[in-house]
Amino acid sequence: MTQIRKQWRRFHEDNPEVYALFKKFSFELISVGFQNYSSKSVFERIRWHTDVQTRSTKFKLNNNYTAYYARLFNVDHPQHNTFFRTRQTSSQEMDDE
């Protein structure tokens, strides 16, 4: 497992609300008819939501984590596993569990 993957996993476990928002905003997009979308855009919406709407300073979102959330969403929701287009990694990191 790569170092960034370990850091993401720790962040993910410590901040479950980030993935909850990632799923919420992704399903909003799906519900209005999008077949695929940018995980980076969803991540930016989470930033906006936590910075502006909630004024939360609890965590800072690392851009390096965006792809991990997209892959996790695809794995957790196989019926939407092409919603986020991801590149294949040489290490198949989501299977490293």
- Counting helices, strands and paired strands, the structural category is mainly alpha
Largest sheet: number of strands, sense, barrel closure: none
Give the integer mean of the pLDDT values: 87
Strand content: under 5%
Counting H and I runs of at least 4 residues, what is the number of helices? 4
Radius of gyration: 13 Å
Broad shape: globular
Cα separation of the termini: 9 Å
Number of strands: 0
Task: Give me the strand/helix succession.
Answer: HHHH
Low-confidence stretches: none
Helix content range: 55-70%
Tell me briefly what this model is:
With 97 residues, the chain is mainly α. The protein is built from four helices and no strands. The protein is globular, with a radius of gyration of 13 Å.
Question: What would you note in describing this structure?
Answer:
It is globular and about 30 Å long. It is an all-alpha fold and 97 residues long. The chain is 56% helix and 0% strand.
Topology of this structure?
Elements: H1 3-14, H2 16-31, H3 39-53, H4 66-76
Task: For this entry, give a set of tags.
globular; single chain; mainly alpha; 97 residues; 4 helices
